[in-house]
Amino acid sequence: MGLRASSEISLAGTDGTTDADRVTHTFHTTETGETDETGDTDDMADMDDTPVMYVQSSVAGAAKILVVGPMGVGKTTLIGTVSEIKPLSTEATMSQAGARLDTKVRPTKTTTTVALDFGRITLGGELVLYLFGTPGQQRFLPAWKDLARGALGALALVDTRDLEASFDAIGHLEDLDVPFSVAVNAFPDSKLHSEDDLRSALDLLPHTPLVICDAREHQSSVKALISLVSHLIETLTEAP
């Protein structure tokens, strides 16, 4: 079975609704990281792409979402692609000193995130996601853990050209008990792998969403985020 494309995340349920239709609750995230459900939303696929500076008056809830993965996987690109505000990026030029500590990356990679990336996207006019991109280098793990505080969930980006590089980020999410979904960022020279092979290689649980996305494309990246939010809602509603 081939890897499920991100456009296939809206599977009809027994009542005729889809995952996107079932996103009928939004979340209020408190300063302590606690969440509660409130209100209803329209289909999250019906988005207003008009750039805005302030949160829309129709917004009923918000959630902090991490975007994690190894250096060079596309975290900064994805946040910049979907953000409705000018994203905050802490990119710095890679130095020889850092090269001795960091995992070797492709020669075309000349900058790296040293603190965080930040962006915002409104889904369905009622749910705001605040996106926090984490540094990919192991030496920034203390800052990574601080960013995870209060996060409702995480989108883990992986690169099939170097799956092993994603193990640490996914492991950190599991250690911190942060629910997550996985998005395979499709690079032009990425090899195709079956979903079963990828799940086995990444040691994913059966219920963990796995989708393909292109971090450079708005709709593709949004669908990956919708996949995550749908998973978070299912996780919260199934919790005792």
From TrEMBL:
Domain of life, per UniProt, equals Bacteria
Q: Which InterPro entries match?
A: Gliding_Motility_GTPase (IPR052705), Gpn (IPR004130), P-loop_NTPase (IPR027417)
The answer, when asked if GTP-binding is one of the entry's keywords, is yes
Instruction: Give a Pfam family name.
Output: ATP_bind_1
Q: Does the keyword GTP-binding apply?
A: yes
Coiled-coil stretches are none
Keywords of this entry: GTP-binding, Hydrolase, Nucleotide-binding
* Renumbered residue ranges of the record's region Disordered: 1-42
Residue ranges under compositional bias (Acidic residues)? 33-42
Name the family.
Belongs to the GPN-loop GTPase family.
Q: Indicate what this protein is called per its UniProt record.
A: ATP/GTP-binding protein
What species is this protein from? Streptomyces hygroscopicus
